[in-house]
Amino acid sequence: MDVVCKRVYDKARPADDYRVLVDVIWPQGLSKEEVKIDEWKKGLRLSTPRPTGIIPRL
Questions:
Q1: pTM of the predicted structure, to 2 decimals
Q2: Cα 55 to Cα 58: distance, rounded to the nearest angstrom
Q3: Domains: count for the chain
């Protein structure tokens, strides 16, 4: 089974099987009917990227 990450603002396609929204807040300007998700995981968060301009010490 392949997992594909897409933006919630992209339209659902017939080839999309099971759609999960992973976000704490609901996307602005979209209704639940427009999004067509199967599950909303409010408690999960995507990892945040490392801030730019910071060089880690080794």
A1: 0.64
A2: 9
A3: 1
Residue among 53, 55, 16, 57 at smallest CA distance from 38:
16
Residue 34 belongs to domain spanning: 18-47
Which residues are 40's β-sheet partners?
21
In this prediction, residue 39 carries a pLDDT of 92
Residue closest to 40 by CA, chosen among 56, 17, 24: 24
The string of pLDDT tens digits covering residues 29-52 is 999 888 889 999 888 765 666 566
Q: What is the DSSP string of 2-50?
A: ------TTSPP-TT--S-EEE-SSPPTT--HHHH--SEEESS--PPPPP
